[in-house]
Amino acid sequence: MSEEELSKMWRDYLVVSFVRNPYQRAVSLYRMVLRAVQQGGALHRGYRWDTFCADAGGFGDECMQDPKCKQRGGKRYTYTHLQPQLDCMLTEGGGWALDYIGRVEHLREDLQEVLDELERRRAPDVPPIRPVASGFEVVNAHSCNASETERLARIGMASAREQYCRPEQYYQGRHAACFAHMQRQYASDVRQLGFGPPDTASM
């Protein structure tokens, strides 16, 4: 297809994306990258949330020193997941490349809005759009207790040192500086997608 054909198709389609609270996303990323390292290795034993939040991009270099993490994809693995969400949502000219932005924090309601719009646009000979199902399965759930760490260890996976029950706990007390760090890391998401400082909704 030519560039003109692609541009026309993009304009004609309903383009939708869902974003996640960047502060929650950072916590999830920290827990995820630690599962990619060698259990009991130096990185697993010594790497903590405060280190990650102060220089999340620096984990790429740490990953290259860990055999399992390096095999998983090394720096590329880290940087792909670390990228701000906004980068994927803008046109070359800086405008929005989509029609609707939903939020993971209220996924069901926002997805229903998308389906309602599709129903409004539906041609008469196309079957009606079904409403959102009653619930969603949590595919990548995390526990904040010792049993989760033990479960991961049994299947040969490492776990993050900090296992708090609520995402906001990663930004409180001795971790208070992490809020400003992540606000800088995801400045474009915080500003353009409307995730201001008070927005640390539960995961």
Can you offer a commentary on this structure?
This protein has 203 residues and is mostly helical. It has one domain. The protein is 47% helix and 4% strand. The protein has eleven helices and two strands. The chain has a two-stranded parallel sheet with strand order 1-2. The protein is globular and about 60 Å long.
Instruction: Spell out the helices and strands N to C.
Output: HEHHHHHHEHHHH
Structural class estimated from helices and strands: mainly alpha
Helical amount: 40-55%
What distance lies between the first and last C-alpha atoms, to the nearest angstrom?
41 Å
Q: How much strand content do the residues show?
A: under 5%
Q: Can you list the strand order of the major beta sheet?
A: 1-2
Largest sheet: 2 strands, parallel
Q: Which terms summarize this structure?
A:
single chain; sulfotransferase activity; Sulfotransferase; mainly alpha; 203 residues; 11 helices
